[in-house]
Specification:
Helix content: 40-55%
CATH architecture of the largest domain: Orthogonal Bundle
Mean pLDDT: 88
CATH topology of the largest domain: Transferase(Phosphotransferase), domain 1
CATH class of the largest domain: Mainly Alpha
Strand content: 5-15%
Shape: globular
Number of strands: 17
Largest sheet: 6 strands, antiparallel
Number of domains: 5
Amino acid sequence: MIGKTISHYLIIEKLGEGGMGVVYKAEDTKLDRIVALKFLSPHLLGSEEEKTRFIHEAKAAASLNHTNICTIHEIDETKPASGEPGGQTFIAMEYIEGQSLKDKITERPLKLDEALDITIQIATGLQKAHEKQIIHRDIKPANILLSNDGVAKIVDFGLAKLAGHTKLTKTDSRLGTVAYMSPEQIRGDHVNQRTDIWSLGVVLYEMLTSQLPFKGDYEQAMVYNIVNEEPDLSKITELNRSFELISIVKNALEKKKDNRYSNMKNLIDDLSSFKENLDLKSSVESDQDVLVPSIAVLPFVDMSPESDQEYFCNGIAEEIITSLSHLEKLKVVARTSAFAFKGKQMDVREIGQKLGVDHILEGSIRKAGNRLRITAQLIQVCDGFYLWSDRFDRVLEDVFSIQDEISLAIADNLKVKLFAADRAIVTKSYTVDIDAYNDYLMGRYFVDKGRKSDFLKGIEYFTKAIEADPNYAQGYSGIANAYYLLGLLGSEMPSKVFPKAKEYAEKALQADDTISEAHTILGLVKVHYDWDWEGAEKEFQLALSLNPNSSFTYYGFAIYYGAIGKAEEAITHAKKYLELDPLSIFAYNAMGTILLRAGHYKMATKHFQKVMEMDPNLSTTYFLSGQVDMKQSFYDQGIALIERAADLENDNPLILSSLGWAYGIAGRKKEAKQILVRLQGMSRDRYISRFLYAKIYAGLGDKDQAFKYLEEAYQQHAMSLALIITDESVENLRSDPRFMKLLKKINLDNYFSL
């Protein structure tokens, strides 16, 4: 064929050969361009069925005009040779200078950002095909061509099927390449667009790992694994510890097609969101993350005779978390996420995948009188192998040395090099009084429950702890934290709780200035109450230098940067918070709020939707998600979400004010004013922030009343006032001269510009 002219195409060279066709590079002599010519394979020339499928490929691909789909120029047939019944059918298509994805991934696994970019391009092309009711059915690396300028092109629609149409081949035949087939495709069941989603999931897995998710020494073994076995997602964990990436791959490879992504758009949205988040980190930071070992410490199981030592078991695990989190070269998951698996019978490998860590510490405690038996096991997530385990039979007073031994054993087995200063931090005891320690653990136990009554109970126990040991820095810090959380609830006058949080944080630092938590609380008080922005930044920097794994400090830093209008810095710190506490609802809501106020509405919605999946009855998330819709003028949708939040928690002033604001900007003034009356009635019995009234009046467009209540909020030191620069509810007030006057009072004028 080389050198021959077929129609107006001069054959230059052979490019390749597959099951259905032979492809040549050719010159289009009419239009003076290079094309690719695909001929039906010689051994199939006499098959009408294959010829029909070949023509079908041309028609299917030609109907799709998209950047990520190889363009079909025409289909034609050569003139038959003398004495032969017919000519040879061929397709003229776009010539792509580059290589196939198959060739590329045989060289090496792709970098994460490159694999994501290619997957998004392929998915975008398939979305176009699916909109035309065309299912490809043979997505694999060999059918993806990569141009030299980085564009991915889908080729070979030979097995494409119009949704709802009968197959082009025999009913019982299995079409496609087994390694990339979906379970329903293998069984010969009805297929829809989700079969392409499965195949693309396999391709993504292979790009990331250079391995197939379902292997087999022979075809039937591979078929069995595809239908019955789960993919080994630990390979993905080794590449990137994000639960989000694992979730995307897992969702694409769900056995039951109804559990898979329902359409390509949803897959594209998740991939794009993950890639956007990934881009927030520099490549240097990403490389460092891969090299740092990671661990989650699960709550210890209570094996005591009376099963009444839950607080003690939780406390020991939390103390180990705190000790390890001081090590910069170890990633330690926060308590909230690690404790999410309490009481659940789950394989450590699944837990590790969800938390994005490569090691798990689990254990049990039996406490009887003054005797302790503590067992601990350090487990490698990828294979469930025990790296270390030990049992400690001691008296209660030895609990401090046991914790030290466990922490040091973990560092040793994870090859974390400890200098003398590191060892001193890991083994540091803040009290030697066992009664004070016991009361401290009980205080933590109550504060971690998260309700106002529990915060107050926690303060009682912390107070007992510092009465037993007046130099117990952690006890003072525990009280400071409880008062800060009371302020965060918004049910107490700021002047009643924030000064106390500051007082006890300072007492903690007087006893021991290395308490990271106390520095963070001081920073948060300087943000929410003192409006001391430079002082807040210094406290957060100090806190992180003392504890580089503190999710609490990353939260504080994110709030600080959001308050002064530095959106990208806020997002970066919120992302780190979420990375360290990947199952924390509070972390997702914090990230969503920061994204909302930075104008990243699509990403904000994704984070709020994630929380709704985790807890469909959490009111806060609905009103935050509703505010995203209101900002985009989707008023009916936004109001419906905020009303849902109000239905779930009908006496929450923050939610009611958000609903009043939404009614106001949607022109439903009567309903907005009814919310105002309701809040005024509630204020007779409880503290209601004046900022909430200002928010509703801003929604109504009544600027005079809005500024009146903002002034009262200033007098109250209302917590929300610190975030006024980016708060979406007062956006229409920012051009008013009174807004800048208010900012000067709270020291934000230098951070604001219209």
